[in-house]
Amino acid sequence: MREIGAEMERELVIIGGGPAGLAAAAAAVENGVAAEDILILEREPELGGILLQCIHNGFGIHRFGEELSGPEYAARFAKKVAELGIPSLLSTMVLTLHRMEDGRKEITAVSSAHGLIRLKARAVVLAMGCRERGRGALNIPGTRPAGIYTAGAAQKFVNIKGFMPGRKVVILGSGDIGLIMARRMTLEGAKVEVVAELMPYSGGLSRNIQQCLRDFDIPLLLSHTITQIHGKERVTGVTISQVDEKRRPILGTEQYFACDTVLLSCGLIPENELTRQAGIPLDPVTGGAVVGENRETEMPGVFAAGNVLHVHDLVDFVSAEAELAGAGAARWLAEGDHAGVKLAVRPQGVIRYVVPQTVSLPADEDVRLFFRVGEVVEKAAVIVECGEKVLYKGMRPKLLPGEMESVTLKAETLSGLDSGQLTVRLEKR
Amino acid sequence: MSETIRELTCIVCPIGCTLKVTMDDGKFVSVTGNTCPRGAKYAETEMTAPRRVLTSTVKVSGGHLPLCPVRTKGDIPKELLFEAMRAVNAVSIPAPVSIGQVVIEDLCGTGVPLIATRDIHSV
Fold first, then answer.
1. Partner of A345 for a Cys bridge, out of A50, A205, A422, B19, CB 3.0 to 4.6 A?
2. What's the ipTM?
3. Does B11 sit within 8 Å of A207, measured CB to CB?
């Protein structure tokens, strides 16, 4: 297929060929969309997304009941997409997305192979993933030498390109990619001096604190941040200070660590430039679109799933979410808009956000709500209510900001509802 | 009797349960806090002879990428991780590579093979 400058038309276009895009595409076919009516657009030269550089294990436990590495997990979905015969355009970057007057969506994209590509689609799944928060967004004081990377950039150097970014490393932020890279660089012969985390708790999974830091005696300094980067051409060291409960550096707590490399693992931001440009409403907390239980955004026929919607800890949940979006898109293409009422789902108190942000009723399937807390909470009940009616109540021994939680609302619990809003809150024991 | 209680974070799966392990004179007695049987097994192994899965990369010649990701097909003794890394870094394999292909049959005498975790095409 070579359609330079040609107008292409598809029932469903999927923007992004990572785990979310692949699972959404497969689910769309399994729910009745013809494979040739779908097109996956991927900016990298191969399908698989960020999983290809996540060579560590731990993927697929929920999904496949086994511990796979990132590339193995991606390969299973890429294989499925290939077997289903779903076409994709690789090395293709989407530039614009907008809704046309007739309700179809117009996408422009570019690739070296095809030049400018104009695509019209009835439905779209947004699966662009997320990006890392870089130094520019963190306002770290000091000089601007070489040797400062996001953890994911270092991961690409080490795992894909075969270069070591440095030998003496300080990591700012305890997100999972930073923890994974602490272990990876240690195994490859680097010395990781310290991991500094601004918050009083880690942003990563507990197991990664154990197997990536404690296993190698790498210190984790909670409530600490870098207050100065030193070095002219290349970073020579950092000053790390303790912070108070308002995250302000405490004078007199400065410690100097010599290093030639600083890795930043300070949070991920859903990549929603296209979404914003299309005028699709975003949730200010997740940074992703506002969606319903089938992951349809507020723009009819546009769905979103995976890290573009909210940042996940586990790819298994990305795949499950993308399957909702793919199935939702298939159903929307067949049946059009959902007739019925839409209730808002609102987080309360220490619960920062809930996805989905709306639930359409009557529900014909169970609805799983995903949420995160803003602080560490021990022994609390998660309560979902609609007005006076308690829809769910369940105990959790411990809730951590770094770990996504969920509750499942049974379809029959939702059946009697037709107005009001759902609230999700915690009740401390 | 010299019973001691150690707290561990289970690494068997991403849930990361907090395990409380009771030991007596270096011998495993019991564990609480695990939510599956694999956690109990992990606690016992971790306190007596800890094991880890190793993931890394090996050099590839003539491939579309310079490296191929690999992992041990099963866990190996934790104290052998750095020795295993030396063996892994000494290997170079020719493209093409298929996912699941055995790269080293018996990594450092552990009896555990090292396998490729993706396809690499020849160029």
1. A422
2. 0.91
3. yes
